[in-house]
Amino acid sequence: MSILDGASRSVTPRLRWRTALAVALMAAAMLVLLIGQMAHPLRIAQSLLPFAFIGGFLFCGLGHHAPHTRFGAANLVTLTRAAGVCLLAGLIGRPEEAAALGWLLPLAAAALLAMDGLDGWLARRFGLASAYGARFDMEVDGFLILVLSLLVAGGPAAGPWVVLCGAWRYLFLAWLLLMPRYDRPLPPSLRRKTVFVGQALGLLAALVPGLPDVAAIALAVAATGLVSASFAIDSFWLYQTERKERTR
């Protein structure tokens, strides 16, 4: 069962209007930030295309935000994080530009990671928690890890194998899509949260300017190993659970 199943599909015009406005304002903010980079149209596309995809996810999933009639401060924080991650995506494939940012790159990524705890707190504080908001936050987290892994892979130390750190989530989802009999809710796990923070910090540290190549590679290996082991554990649990249910 999907995380969004069972939610009401009734959507008020007020909710649609506010969501559309929030997406439009954030898109405008991104355009302002990118206006000085017109010499790099491909970089602009790399930032705007994933943000457009995120905007589509927001609008198409509005019905699952019920019973709330407000987009909410928590979702706006997540949307801001999404815009920031999309800006970082514009640096993929441009190691010289990424290196020229110096400490600004890892600090910006660290700020986006730190904001991850703010949206959940706001949702609980104002009573606007929903499966929709939780899924939105999860997708932004996954995209952040993918972008960080691509940036590290494009650096001078680690190789393309680091991309596996960010690709595991999407490979896992593809597996569940191709074999839906294994698609079922996973039990709550502190391990997953710990691994997410660990891999994010490892990738962030690997982007620190002046870090020795050996240290950057070690951090990337640790991050990739952690997330690979975590997904292996969850995959094995799903396999065992399905097998037990099938043999009953």
Structure, described:
The chain is mostly helical and 248 residues long. The protein has one domain (13-242): Four Helix Bundle (Hemerythrin (Met), subunit A) (Up-down Bundle), CATH 1.20.120. It is 71% helix and 0% strand. It has helices spanning 13-34, 41-60, 73-89, 95-100, 104-114, 116-125, 131-153, 163-178, 190-206, 213-246. Helix 1 (13-34) packs antiparallel against helix 2, helix 2 (41-60) packs antiparallel against helix 3 and helix 5 (104-114) runs antiparallel to helix 9.
What is the CATH C-level name?
A: Mainly Alpha
Q: Helicity level, as a percent range?
A: over 70%
**Range of strand content:** under 5%
Q: For the terminal residues, how far apart are their CA atoms?
A: 20 Å
Low-confidence stretches: 1-13
Any idea what the shape is? globular
How much is the average pLDDT?
80
What's the β-strand tally? 0
